[in-house]
Amino acid sequence: MTMEAYALCTQPISSISEWQAAIDAIGFDLKLEADQIPPAVSGHLPATWQGREAGFECSVIPFSDLAETYPETDFGGPWACAYAFYFATFPACAGTWIAIAAGLRLTCGIAFDPQEDKLLTAEAAIRYAHDTVASIARLEAQFSRNTSL
């Protein structure tokens, strides 16, 4: 099952190196492995988290599309740039939320998790990314125990 998340930003992230520096600054082990970022490219953004493939889909979308899809949510917009993220694995989930948190730190934006119907500030997104990483570790340990029986 594919999950989705959004980053609403006051300005676009300017470069892959700036985004990577922001990831490093918030203390996560995620390495973006792309030469360009949206809007220059769209689709799979390769990344590695804890030595594992953690890439995710990422593209710039019109803010109006998001507002029309979720009319009950007050995004406080309009926003200059809206990034859509799609992911389907545990590592990609971690990669997505780490990338979103770092991007928001750069651009003073907010995140939207439609699965949880949550809007998050940059600082809340960093905590959410930490919580996500911890939850993934617990789930993977549980799955490992259950499959070894």
Walkthrough of the structure:
The chain is an alpha+beta fold and 149 residues long. 41% of the residues lie in helices and 26% in strands. It has 4 helices and 9 strands; from the N terminus they run βαβββββαβαββα. The strands form 2 sheets. It has a 6-stranded antiparallel β-sheet. It is globular. The model has no long low-confidence stretch (mean pLDDT 92).
What's the assembly state of these chains? single chain
Shape: globular
Main structural class: alpha+beta
Reported for the largest beta sheet, the result is: 6 strands, antiparallel
Distance between the termini: 26 Å
- Which stretches are poorly predicted, pLDDT < 50 over at least 5 residues? none
Classify the beta-strand content into a percent band.
Answer: 25-35%
Number of strands: 9
Percent of residues in helices comes to 40-55%
Order of strands, widest sheet: 3-6-7-1-8-9
Mean pLDDT over all positions: 92
Number of helices: 4
Radius of gyration: 15 Å
Q: What string, H for helix and E for strand, traces the elements in order?
A: EHEEEEEHEHEEH
